[in-house]
Write a structure and sequence with these properties.
Blueprint: H1 2-26, E1 31-32, E2 38-39, H2 41-50, H3 61-67, E3 76-78, E4 92-93, E5 101-103, E6 107-115, E7 120-128, E8 137-145, E9 148-149, E10 154-158, E11 163-164, E12 168-172, E13 175-181, E14 191-199, E15 203-209, H4 217-220, E16 223-230, E17 234-236, E18 250-253
Length: about 250
């Protein structure tokens, strides 16, 4: 009797190993970022389509869980890579009902989102195309008209030599602004990402503002969030008034 039980137990163990072995194979890990977040090939490709190849380093476990187990076709996604139209006054914008991309000779700003049945996440990506002459306190943020922000924004400054968080995030009822000092190693390889979860419909405006003068953190934080501000987000005042380059923002209907 004991021999039969041992035999059945061994068979059960082999079945369990076989079952989980197949699942592990089906969910084979394609890439693991420096924070230990592991991606399948499909998950990796999703974030490349949404933002760029390398954005996977910015993805947290919480963000990955938002799409895990979902078919890519079921995620309503605005792809950041947009068709450009004519260049006017040194600025290029996307040919789309939304304005998801803008580029100058110095930098580009793009925007995308994905949605599950319960919430959406919006992502903005700023890429420096040259080394900025002034490396002081820059600003990146959003004006939210209609939707409800569900999470605090995640903002990361990546230079290739390190990743940095903003020094200050100011919140107001209709949006927020993150302030950070550009690291000394900021150059044409520097990327600043910002994302947050939201629900509801309306419009989201996002922008990046580069300071043309050296400011203190206190001076750079002199702003309100307002549609009439720079990039439809930052209404600077005090020492920050006219200190920024007034890069047009990006926006989308959601």
């Amino acid at each position: 009797m004991k021999k039969k039980m041992k035999k059945y137990g061994l068979l059960l163990l082999l079945v369990v190993i076989s079952f989980f072995g197949k699942n592990v194979f089906a969910e084979e890990i394609y890439y693991t970022n420096s924070s230990g977040v592991a991606f399948t090939k499909e998950e990796y490709d999703f974030y490349t389509d949404l933002a760029y190849d390398g954005y996977q380093e910015k993805v947290t476990e919480e963000m990955l869980n938002e799409i895990k187990g979902k078919d890519r076709d079921s995620l309503k996604m605005n792809v950041v890579k947009m068709c450009l139209k004519d260049k006017n006054d040194g600025i290029m914008t996307a040919q789309n009902d939304d304005n998801l991309f803008i580029e100058t000779t110095a930098k580009s700003l793009s925007m995308g989102k994905y949605c599950t049945p319960f919430f959406c996440r919006v992502v903005a990506v700023l890429k420096w195309l040259v080394e900025p002459a002034v490396k002081s306190y820059d600003a990146m943020g959003a004006f939210i008209d209609g939707p409800t922000r569900l999470t605090d924004p995640v903002t990361t400054i990546s230079t290739g030599q390190g990743a940095y968080d903003p020094e200050l995030v100011r919140y107001q009822d209709d949006g927020f602004g993150a302030i950070f000092k550009l690291p000394e190693e900021t150059n044409e390889n520097t990327i600043i990402d910002q994302s947050f979860m939201f629900e509801g419909s309306g419009m989201i405006f996002m922008t990046y503002q580069h300071t043309m003068y050296n400011l203190t953190l206190n001076e750079a934080s002199q702003f309100d969030i307002d549609f009439s501000g720079f990039g439809n987000v930052f209404d600077f005042y005090g020492e920050a008034f006219n200190a920024y380059d007034n890069l047009p923002g990006v926006y989308m209907y959601v």
